[in-house]
TrEMBL record, chain A:
This is Carbon-monoxide dehydrogenase small subunit. One of its GO terms (molecular function) is oxidoreductase activity. InterPro entries: 2Fe-2S-bd (IPR002888), 2Fe-2S-bd_dom_sf (IPR036884), 2Fe-2S_ferredoxin-like_sf (IPR036010), 2Fe-2S_ferredoxin-type (IPR001041), 2Fe2S_fd_BS (IPR006058), Beta-grasp_dom_sf (IPR012675), Diverse_Oxidoreductases (IPR051452). It holds the Pfam family Fer2. Transmembrane segments: none annotated. It comes from Herbihabitans rhizosphaerae. Keywords: 2Fe-2S, Iron, Iron-sulfur, Metal-binding, Oxidoreductase. Residues 1-78 form the 2Fe-2S ferredoxin-type domain.
UniProtKB/TrEMBL annotation, chain B:
NCBIfam families: pucD. This is Xanthine dehydrogenase molybdenum binding subunit apoprotein. Signal peptide: none annotated. Residues 1-13 have a biased composition (Basic and acidic residues). InterPro entries: Ald_Oxase/Xan_DH_a/b, Ald_Oxase/Xan_DH_a/b_sf, Ald_Oxase/xanthine_DH-like, AldOxase/xan_DH_MoCoBD1, AldOxase/xan_DH_MoCoBD2, AldOxase/xan_DH_Mopterin-bd_sf, Xanthine_dehydrogenase_dsu. The lineage of its organism: Bacteria, Bacillati, Actinomycetota, Actinomycetes, Pseudonocardiales. Pfam families: Ald_Xan_dh_C, MoCoBD_1, MoCoBD_2. One of its GO terms (molecular function) is oxidoreductase activity.
Length: 156, 772
């Protein structure tokens, strides 16, 4: 089938999509956007989190056809050229990235949290990111990064 | 800074701006920006225009004879390019890290559920998976052998491998084997099978090359040991199998063994097309080795003052169907089986066995984890028996520099065990559990709303662990580094090239830091890791900063020596020169010239192979010998709240003291301690591969639970830096110790809260409610 949707602000059209493919597969293998990661394929790890019409979703659980005519934003769409989004910048600065495989999903989930909530409390951060597994960091530096990004966004 | 009264004319401290980002600082990771933008190329992200996808047929049975294999259904599937089995393996049919015992694909018999039987290449991953489903294998199902102790001792157990079911037995005998003591405590302990659960599943891309060889882009922990094994199985010389490290999504031991490397290469060579294989999460649970489950029988004898007289232990590690690194895991469990304590008389036996359970091998902590759960449980039992505080009994027996280990090895660098225990004990405790008001998020069960505080009790527990760093027992352990120094666009630039695997820990950052410090240049680039340079050894055993760090340091020293020779010649000076801030500096005359001016168009390019001090094999009957390069220690204090009605546990605090010798990158060190502690928390209360009759029942992240951000408490971390004179910069390996001590600390806290014995980890709700 043919799939048309807007990805990171650009109209995209891809052919020969098999109806069983997930949005994640199409992004990664057909659109050249491998930033969103596939770590569990069942919505448990959050590594594939993208925005679908502004709502964060696990793209592994979205059938590609469901994105027809909708807007998708991936981790690749958050920076403005060389200028990192404040969330991305904070993750780099605070050492919240080790292997980095969970990072794209955490960046999108954090971006969404800070769109909804200015200066979230620690319990709020933990609740918001509970669907994103990280195996390397023990989450301490991720919390540091979220707090830093929240502070910077609040004063900007 | 005070100056000597007779300072030379131009004292060196007057010069230049110092180089930033050197050893002891925390520069940002060079790959961080790519990773946050989603632009870092992991092994699963690789893509070529004409590539095919590989898939693997795996055995549904833990033990069965293969009667027949019918591949026709797969061959007839449109889009399939090739189907291959054992018969198609072009070279050696077996591989393995320590023992060559594992078939590339099963031959006549399958020895574990998930063993590879056939492989397919097709133009779409789903086509490949469906083709795999159409392969018909007729099995004669056999009764699996699933108990390690039986595998070794039961006379009626089936023999799984030609040499028998024993992979290794290591006895340790020290002192009086018949010692008696006033106070004796005994215990039987069990450790469940843990998964490394890295986030980036096994994956890679094999590209057939014009010379008949293969270029393999792969996520691994040791490129050269993969190269050696893959080349043998393909029947190719090593130089025709070139490996490039693709982005690695975590490792933790699970990438020490081969997974899809040979399969993808075979499919690529057969089809003449690039072939990519990416495991799903479920397949990943079958596609790599796990932490050995263990059964441990311990007896400690002590004086009434609480000093150890003897330790006796019998340990059984279940190696599963193939040996992997079981032999080395056995050695760690046995040699570190007393823990970081002085014990004059030791009798330890450790067995590693073949069974039909999933193969087990390396995971962070590597044998030391299982032993620590048992010996720390025993120390708490001893404390209770004597009416002593758990910290006090540990301090009274704490080993130190100069202690003789159960192997007879005398510890010849800092071992601040007692001080670490006192320091963690002195850290402030979290506030008491609220009794009047409550926030669900701060209670066991969280927003599941399972308690408002009723039935919740608090406990505090301690755990301390010991780990060997680098490869032991006389292994020729080395790393290779190539360093190139040249002037690019007017600026001196160093390039560091090694084959050492960056798996997320930050080795690339550390390599650049060492080059900056040693060469006094700001700009350092890290060449991608590949097999075009000599081996970097394994990214395991907490060894890469020590070993590849040591190799980079040695290569830089050689480059620096050559550069200073050039400087002496060109500047017509003699005597001591050094590099600082991009300048050539003389002790006597201060700054002489810019490094860039002296070097000019010349390129200095040197490769150095570097070794740690040699170790010895262990005596096979007494386990005596100078077997370990270095010891490292971490201690945890855990605070838990337990809902005794439902058996739910919330870890409230998990604080840690670790001696790292020298923190090369302090932020990265703390990151390792956080992450390692979290994996230990997982083993304490959440993580277990549930195996029944040889079959894995929970191969998914829905059913195999790793800690989330809600499960990890805030951590206070205290890093000590007591230099080891034998190691580069005095550093001590960092990655593994925190994984070892957090588990026993948390379980001890649960025991303290509930008064239950709890001889097994992970602790399940039914272990607390008594409904198991």
């Amino acid at each position: 089938m043919r799939l048309r949707c807007e990805v990171n602000g650009e109209s995209r059209e891809v052919d020969d999509v098999w109806p069983g493919e997930s949005l994640l597969y199409v992004l990664r293998e057909r659109m050249g956007l491998p930033g969103s990661k596939n770590a569990c394929e069942q919505g448990e790890c959050g590594s594939c989190t993208v925005y679908l019409d502004g709502v964060p979703v696990c793209s592994c659980l979205v059938a590609a056809g469901q994105a027809e005519g909708h807007e998708v934003t991936t981790v690749e769409g958050l920076a403005e050229g060389e200028q990192l989004d404040p969330v991305q910048q904070a993750f780099v600065e605070k050492g919240a990235v080790q292997c980095g495989f969970c990072t794209p999903g955490l960046i999108v989930a954090t971006h969404d949290l800070l769109e909804r909530r200015e200066r979230p409390s620690d319990p709020e951060i933990r609740e918001a990111l509970a669907g994103n597994l990280c195996r390397c960091t023990g989450y301490e530096k991720i919390l540091d990064a979220v707090r830093l990004a929240a502070d910077r966004k609040a004063v900007s | 800074m005070s100056r000597p009264t007779k300072a030379p004319d131009k004292a060196p401290d007057r010069i230049t701006t110092p180089i930033t980002g050197g050893v002891g600082e925390s520069p940002l990771r060079p790959d961080g920006t790519l990773k946050v933008k989603g632009e870092f190329a992991y092994s699963s992200d690789l893509w070529m225009d004409d590539m095919l996808w590989g898939a693997t047929l795996r055995s549904p049975h833990p033990y069965a004879r293969i009667v027949s294999i019918d591949l026709s259904g797969a061959w007839q599937t449109p889009g399939v390019h090739t189907v291959m089995t054992y018969d198609d393996v072009p070279g050696e049919k077996l591989f393995g890290l320590e023992h060559t015992d594992q078939p590339v694909m099963a031959h006549e018999v399958v020895r574990y559920q998930g063993e590879a039987v056939a492989i397919v290449a097709a133009d779409h991953p789903e086509t490949a998976r469906r083709a795999v489903d159409k392969i018909v294998v007729e099995y004669e199902v056999l009764e699996p052998l699933t108990d390690a102790e039986e595998a070794v001792f039961a006379t009626d157990a089936p023999t799984l491998h030609p040499g028998g079911n024993l992979v290794r037995h290591l006895p340790i005998r020290r002192g009086d084997q018949h010692a008696t003591a006033d106070v004796v405590v005994r215990g039987e302990y069990e450790v469940g099978m843990q998964d490394q659960a890295f986030l980036g599943p096994e994956s890679g891309l094999a590209v057939p090359a014009e010379d008949g060889g293969v270029d393999l882009y792969i996520a691994t922990q040791w490129l050269h040991v993969d190269q050696k094994q893959v080349a043998k199985c393909l029947g190719l010389p090593n130089d025709k199998v070139r490996l490039m490290l693709a982005g690695v999504g975590g490792a933790f031991g699970a990438r020490e063994d081969l997974s899809m490397q040979v399969h993808a290469s075979m499919l690529a060579l057969r089809t003449g097309r690039p072939v990519k294989i990416v495991y799903s999460r479920e397949e990943s649970f079958f596609g790599h080795v796990h932490r050995h489950p263990a059964k441990l029988y311990y007896e400690h004898g002590a004086t009434r003052e609480g000093r150890l007289v003897y330790v006796k232990a019998r340990m059984f590690l279940d190696g599963g169907a193939y040996a992997s690194s079981t032999g080395a895991v056995v050695a760690n469990a046995a040699t570190l089986g007393v823990g970081p304590y002085e014990a004059p008389n030791v009798t330890i036996d450790c067995w590693g066995a073949y069974t039909n359970n999933p193969p087990c091998g390396a995971m962070r902590g590597f044998g030391a984890v299982q032993a620590a759960f048992a010996y720390e449980s025993q120390m708490d039992r001893l404390a209770a028996e004597l009416g002593l505080d758990p910290v006090e009994v540990r301090v009274r027996n704490a080993m130190a520099e100069g202690t003789t280990m159960p192997t007879g090895q005398v510890v010849d660098s800092a071992a601040p065990v007692a001080e670490m225990l006192r320091r963690v004990e002195a850290m402030p405790l979290p506030p008491a559990a609220p009794t009047d008001s409550y926030d669900l998020r701060e209670l066991p069960g969280g927003v599941s709303n399972t308690t408002h505080g009723e039935g919740v009790v608090r406990g505090i527990g301690y755990g301390i662990g010991i780990k060997n760093v680098c490869f032991s027992e006389g292994f020729d352990d080395f790393s290779t580094a190539r360093v190139r120094l040249e002037v690019i666009a007017g600026e001196p630039t160093a390039m560091v090239h090694t084959a050492a695997a960056e798996v997320g820990q930050g080795l690339v950052t550390v390599q650049a830091q060492i080059a900056r410090t040693e060469l006094g240049v700001e700009r350092v680039t890290i060449h991608p890791a590949d097999t075009q340079v000599g081996s970097g050894g394994s990214t395991s055993a907490s060894r890469q900063t020590y070993m590849t760090g040591g190799a980079v340091k040695a290569a830089c020293e050689k480059v620096r020596g050559l550069l200073l020779d050039i400087a002496r010649e060109r500047l017509h000076v003699e005597g001591q020169l050094h590099l600082d801030g991009g300048k050539i500096v003389s002790d006597r005359h201060g700054v002489l010239a810019d490094l860039a001016e002296v070097l000019g168009d010349e390129v200095i390019d040197e490769t150095v192979e570097w070794r740690h001090r040699p170790t010895e094999a262990l005596d096979p009957t007494t386990g005596q010998g100078f077997a370990h390069v270095q010891y490292a220690f971490a201690v945890h204090r855990a605070v838990v709240d337990v809902d005794v009605d439902l058996g739910l546990v919330r870890v409230v605090a998990l604080d840690c003291v670790q001696d790292v010798g020298k923190a090369i990158n302090p932020d990265a060190v703390v990151g390792q301690i956080h992450g390692g502690s979290a994996q230990g928390l997982g083993l304490a209360v959440m993580e277990e591969i549930q195996v029944r009759d040889g079959k894995i029942r929970n191969p998914s992240f829905t059913d195999y639970l790793i800690p989330t951000i809600l499960d990890m408490p805030p951590m206070k971390v205290d890093v000590l830096e007591l230099a080891d004179p034998h190691a580069p910069y005095g550093l001590r390996g960092v990655g593994e110790p925190p994984t070892i001590s957090s588990t026993p600390a948390i379980v001890a806290a649960i025991r303290a809260a509930t008064g239950l014995a709890i001889p097994r980890c992970p602790v399940r709700p039914e272990d607390i409610t008594g409904t198991a």
